[in-house]
Amino acid sequence: MGFDGAAVLAVFVLAAFAGFAGALLGMGGGAILTPLLAAGMGYPIRSVIGASVVSVIATSSGAAAAYVRDRLTHLRIAMFLELATASGALAGAYLSQHLPVRWLYWLFAGLLGYSAVSMFQRRYLETGSALPESPLARRLQLEGTYFDPALGRAVAFRAGRVGWGFAVMLAAGSLGGALGISAGVFKVLGLDLVMGLPIKVSTATSNFMVGVTGAAAAGVYLARGEVDPALAGPVALGVLAGAFAGSRVLPRLRGRAIRYLFVPLLGYLALEMLRKGAGL
Amino acid sequence: MSTKTQAARDAARPQETEAARPRPQAGPQAGARSEAAGQEGSAMELVVSRILQGGVLASAVTIALGLALWALTGQNGYGPGRPPAGWGAILQDAVRLRPMAVVQAGLGLLVLTPIFRVAASVVWFVQQRDWVYVAITAAVLLLLLGSLLAGSLGFASAAASPLY
Questions:
Q1: For A45-59, b where at least 16 C-beta lie within 10 A, e where not — what string?
Q2: What is the C-alpha separation between A252 and A271, in angstroms, rounded?
Q3: CB contact under 8 A, B100 and A121
Q4: CA B111 → CA A3, A31, A157, B52, B146, distances in Å?
Q5: I need a labelling partner for A143 at 20 to 30 A (CA). Which of A1, A115, A130, B93 fits?
Q6: Is this complex's ipTM strictly greater than 0.95?
Q7: Are A37 and B110 in contact (CB under 8 A)?
């Protein structure tokens, strides 16, 4: 197999875009990258899934250093919920061998559409929502403070509805493992909508979590020989560069700006997945 | 509708309303560090941040090396055959500088970085004597290692994917 410099460069640029957006929005970037590589550049879907599993870790690792330093990633919240997502991802990676892909696309499209609507409804929410205090959150120390440069002050937060959040993470993990994506969108939804955390903490914590979950899935894909290095290599490099840049931008953005970026992306992805599910 | 709910929420929590003027962009990160100082975990976060940066850098360099070898030789090292599957095969071929195996090894480093990161947090929670989180992070680590082991042992030889 020869070296196609133009294709490698194109993949690198697309991957950098996906990494940048993924770092900002707490997604692995796979949801953006998958349609670009599969529908856009015509790579076979299974090859794209392998590369996207790898891209998830690249997005997370490229951005995580800055997010951990800026205290946007909450380690305890991430680790606690990681219990749910890592076990879910493991189950999903095996389930994907037996489930019809079309059905998964439809499920994915529905969830994305729902995400878009709920994100739009919460567009004026800069900090977390006021939820009833959860005893479990207190027991597990699921609370913290970060300094928000865009607001010019420190923001305190505490997780609510911890049990529901855990259940959403379990589902997000399984779906992610099955589709070869990070399902970061649903993790952000779980952290933001269900557990009421500030949007920046939600995206940064989700960004960290998708890397850990992704490692569980990617280890399996890589060892099984389902990661095509000719595609996954340039993808990983591009995503790392894009995510590194994105993690420098996020702290300075308004929460509203992040949500406004989210809504059209979610809508587009929902339509894209519907189209694929319908076989068009 | 949501505007109204949000107004009610802000009224209920006046200390959470937005500041009128954003802080000048001159030193937001320095501000973040000084405000964060004194809270638990800052040393841990620095260590973790370094682990992530080191792992990512090593991985990126290895992947770039593999792609450069591929570009220079014009061959992926496998002809029409399959790139290596399984950690042992990947490492063996990477040492022989077969381009795709070098890329695979770099991707492997990328996969290992978050796992190292979880392992580091287990150690940190042990030092903190926070046994609930020792249990949580250790369980996450076991899940990760279990998935690596299951994938490497159970499926590497049986791989029949239509990828290549």
A1: ebbbbbbbbbbbbbb
A2: 30
A3: no
A4: 25, 19, 31, 11, 14
A5: A115
A6: no
A7: no
Residues 53-72 of A with CB under 8 A from B: 54, 57-58, 60-62, 64-66, 68-71
- Choosing among A76, A97, A249, which should be mutated to test the B contact, i.e. which has the most B CBs within 10 A? A76
CA distance A27 to B35: 28
What sign does the CA torsion over A141, A115, A127, A27 have? positive
Q: Which amino acid is at B78?
A: Y
- Hey, what are B120's tokens? 């580091």
CA dihedral A148, A153, A156, A159 (to 10 degrees): -30
- Interface residue A216 vs chain B (CB under 8 A): yes
Asked if A274 contacts A99 with a C-beta cutoff of 8 angstroms, the reply is: no
Confidence (pTM): 0.79
Q: How far is CA B147 from CA A184, A267, B22, B111, in A?
A: 20, 33, 46, 12
Cα–Cα distance, B49 to B39 (Å, whole number): 17
How far is B51 from B87, CA to CA, in rounded Å?
A: 22
In this complex, the residue of B6, B137, B151 whose CB is nearest that of residue A224 is B151
Task: Tell me how far apart the alpha carbons of residues B20 and B26 are, in angstroms, rounded to a whole number.
Answer: 18
CB-nearest to A229 from B41, B83, B132 is: B83
Tens digits of residue pLDDT in A93-139? 677 677 776 777 788 788 888 878 888 887 877 777 777 888 888 88
